[in-house]
Amino acid sequence: MSIVLDLGGLGPADLVAGPSALSELMASLHVLAEPEHHPEAAGWAARAAAADPGLREELLLFAPLWARFRCRLFFPLAVPLAASLDEELTAIAALPAEDFLELVAPGVLGTNAMPVPPVRELRPGTTSAEDYTRHCLRRSYARGELARHLMAAPLELRDRLLAVLRAADTAFFAEDWRTLRPALEDHAREVRRRLAARSPADVLGELLPTAARVGPGERVRLDKLQIAEVKVAPRPLVLVPSARVWPHLTVKHEHPSCVAVQYPAPAATPGGQLTVRDLHDRLMALTSPARMELCRHLLGEPITTSELAARLGSSEPQVSRALRTLREAGLVRSTRDGKLVRHRLATDVIRRLGHDVLATVAR
Fold it and tell me: Does 78 share its domain with 208?
């Protein structure tokens, strides 16, 4: 499954890269809401959660907005990008009720599997509003409650959400953002330099670990648990690097203002990211009892193919084939020592495999 971005027709002015404080705050709130997805941020999450215990209930109410689906409200809606979180929150405060509903209603529902009724139909007491609230409730009680508040009084909910975001900024995010922002801005400047000199498909293929060029033209496939083909132009493409979003990669393309991609900045990506195919190959390589036995011998000192064959009572060609499978999956490293080639288990890769499984599924 994947999202394919068609970048054809984009000019230099249509390619924007830069951090967004609001998007980063959303990613941070997601880590707090679903810490089991982010073991690498456990220390930070514990400190942030303890900063203002009184925020807990309000964060729980709004948690569906920064769950896996991610509410469009938290991504840039215009270029150039806002300079500060205060500017982004002020822009939300100025949204009319219908615009706020249009941005938030899909996030409350949290899935593309069911269409959200047109905003003009989402008024208190209408069949569409009642059906929408019922669909949200079927997904979870939290989503149903949030939908009920949204249908009854969207502007009151908007103001309540803004109060929660400002409180989170005061409690822990402002200090965190002062630390994170400089590196993200440096990274964004490098991305803009690349975009000025090279095709956007080439840059995205290098920038996003699970991206790959496909077919003719400027098309890039992103490894996601979604199926979509998105023609970006004439909208701009906004690339939003993040320090907290790993292992997720988020593409928001429904809004007419721009297509936004939030991705982990390289410095915030522990050990890189696997494609689904890479993960499949590693897991399959370990399903063979013969290859698993070979791995046990490779766990100690480096061993040659002939010694492995002697230990296992097997032929060298058989051992070579098993080693090749493990090496192609990244589970074995082979080094030349004069005329001999010695093999050793990549224990760091094996150790990460459980985390890699979670990260690849969570993306």
Answer: yes
pLDDT-based confidence at residue 156 (cuts at 50, 70, 90): very high
Instruction: Please tell me the distance from the alpha carbon of residue 330 to that of residue 311, in angstroms, as a whole number.
Output: 23
Asked if 146 and 62 count as a contact pair (C-beta separation under 8 A), the reply is yes
Type of residue numbered 291: R
Centre a 10 Å sphere on the Cβ of residue 103 and count the other Cβ atoms it contains: 21
Number of folded domains in the chain?
Answer: 2
Reply yes or no on whether the pLDDT at 181 is more than 80.
yes
Please state, in angstroms and as integers, the Cα–Cα distance from residue 134 to each residue in 68, 107, 108, 191, following that order: 20, 15, 12, 44
Are 236 and 288 contained in the same domain? no
The more confident residue out of 107 and 347 is 107
b/e 241-255 (16+ beta carbons within 10 angstroms → b): bbbbbbbbbbbbbeb
Question: Of 265, 260, 258, which is closest to residue 208 (Cα–Cα)?
Answer: 265
Find the CATH number of the domain harbouring 352.
1.10.10.10
The domain of 338 spans 276-362
Same domain? 132 vs 245: yes
Contact 108, 146 (CB under 8 A): yes
Quote the percentage of the chain above a pLDDT of 90. Answer: 55
**What pLDDT, on a 0 to 100 scale, did the predictor assign at position 228?**
84
